[in-house]
Amino acid sequence: MRHGGQILIQALRTNGVTRVFSVPGESFLAALDGLYDSGIANIVCRHEGGAALMAEAAGKLTGRPGICFVTRGPGATNASAGVHVARQDSTPMILFVGQIARGDTDREAFQEVDYRAMFAPLAKWVAQIDATDRIAEYVARAFHVATSGRPGPVVLALPEDMLSGRADIADLPAARPPLAEVGPGAATAIVDALRGAGRPLVVAGGSLWSQRAADDLARFAQAWDLPVAVPFRRQDHMDNRLPHYVGDLGIGMNPALGAALREADVILSLGSRLGDTLTAGYALMDPVRPHARVIHVHPDPDELGTLWRADPGLAADPRAVVAALADTAPQPGAWGEWRARLRANYQDWQVPRPTPGSVRLEQVVDWLARNLPDDAIVTNGAGNYAAFLHRYFRWRQYGTQLAPTSGSMGYGLPSAISASLAHPDRTVVCLAGDGCIQMTVNELSTAAQYGATPIVLVCNNGRYGTIRMHQERHFPGRVSGTDLFNPDFTALVRAYGGHGELVEGDEDFAPAFERARLSGRLSVIELRLDPEALTPGATLTQTREAAQKATG
Q: What percentage of the chain carries pLDDT values higher than 70?
């Protein structure tokens, strides 16, 4: 006879879980007891939002569900931000939430929440386990749902009396992924559609990807001389140095690439939904007035036909599809000049444009692109600072970009901690704005406790830069609610036993980064930026004056 916590943790072990992220609560004490001698590392975080983001990042890195435990009520509501990221980013994740005793349901008991109602719009599946002897069944299903089709988050509520109850029940085997073979007819249909193209564009997106898929895509693109773009924050799907990579579509995209999306007559989407961010709010591709033939490969059959008429459509794992395409006989069409033009536009976009100030983000990011190891993991959250990273960094390997396609602030630091714990032998760099990092800055404590050693670059311009940009565009000169008071970030990391430096000139960044790397400790480098440097393409004053001129 085992208690529910032991049954639950053994189910996690069976499914290959080696690390979970949590904030402890009395509602799941039995699960904590199950973890005690399980061999599974329990990374105890400072806030449930940080714990959920770390678990989501673990799902991104491994392709297997990241695991998070939080308590009922406030714990669950705090963690919901991470569930939202996992949903929009198509990341496999399982959130276990402590719950009130079953006998107190519907009495508005202490911290009672109906999790099925709360998480229904956010998760792929939400359930409550009401029988101790069914725990293994629910966990097996959770792993399957989180990884099947379009991956995503699952939420399981654990009533405390169910979890502490005992049962004599056998463990179930680990969930196994379905076969992913793609028939020869599918690859033939895709290449037949490509042959008729005059201006084809491949868009490689989604979360189902691997280094092998990146290599297969490179072989296919080279053999067929195809231009390849990626959606927002999926830049590690293909080596950016290759001549067939033409840039990223989405927020802050190269306008020339946006124009190419509008010009393309055949679009091969490998895993991407081709949604509003990628299409600039459907301005570049209009579902009502389609201008291009869309060959759509997506793991979720329900996605095919939702926005675009797929011609053809294939419900399949894009990794298997690109492997099949890489083995097709090379038959490049007459679009070499088109591909070369798109690549030239990308290379021009890569040339740093000077911005105001003694520390310029374009120079920092360019230095990182030239000096970081190919396998360095780079993370970020949301803010105008990220536009510099997207524009000027060059990803070379899959699994080296951790960033929320949902645009969630505060993501960079927790994901960097998760990456550093998973890969202590690799360089992990987090870029965060001064507003972004303060969403989750308390997780510096978690990093220090468990020995995570990311190098965190805090881009300090004293404001919520993205909101200020929109504010100046719509209400120029009327500044409201976007200025920040910041701590001494370098002193803060030193208080946790880490390494901290302040950089106030371009020439000081490289030696500061090297000292941080050699320290072998959690590090924060604060970059003191000029508030005028609003975006990679316009200063604050230029943005305001353009808006004033437009409004008369």
A: 100
Supply 370's token pair.
Answer: 């030239």
Note the pLDDT tens digit of each residue in 273-308.
999 999 999 999 999 998 999 999 999 999 998 999
The C-alpha atoms of residue 225 and residue 277 are separated, in whole angstroms, by: 27
Q: How far apart are CA 378 and CA 516, in angstroms?
A: 16
Classify residue 134 by its DSSP letter: G
String of b and e for 163-200 (b: at least 16 CB within 10 Å)?
bbbebebeebeebeeeeeebeeebbebbbebbeebebb
Tens-place pLDDT, residues 390-447 = 999 999 999 999 999 998 999 999 999 999 999 999 999 999 999 999 999 999 999 9
Structure tokens at 126: 């939400």
Encoded tokens for 16: 């290959």
Cα separation, 161 vs 499, in Å, equals: 45
Q: Encoding tokens for residue 444? A: 């510096």
Question: Which structure tokens are listed for 157?
Answer: 């509520």
Determine contact, residues 518/511, Cβ cutoff 8 Å: no
Residues in the chain: 552
d(CA 350, CA 331): 30
Say how far apart CA 307 and CA 301 lie, in whole Å. Answer: 13
pLDDT tens digits, residue range 476-490?
989 999 999 999 999
Question: What's the token pair of residue 170?
Answer: 């056998």
Q: Are 336 and 198 in contact (CB under 8 A)?
A: no
* Extended beta strands in 160-214, E state: 166-167, 200-204
For residue range 309-332, list pLDDT tens digits in order: 999 999 999 999 999 999 998 877
Mean of pLDDT values over 439-459: 98
**Helices 540-551, 465-474: crossing angle, 10 deg rounding:** 20
How much is the mean pLDDT over the chain?
A: 95
Q: How far apart are CA 484 and CA 481, in angstroms?
A: 9
Task: Report the candidate in 379, 389, 449 with the shortest Cα–Cα distance to residue 410.
Answer: 379
| Domains of the chain with bracketed CATH | 2-167 (3.40.50.970), 184-350 (3.40.50.1220), 361-551 (3.40.50.970)
Strand order in the sheet with 523-528: 401-402, 377-380, 428-433, 455-460, 523-528, 499-503
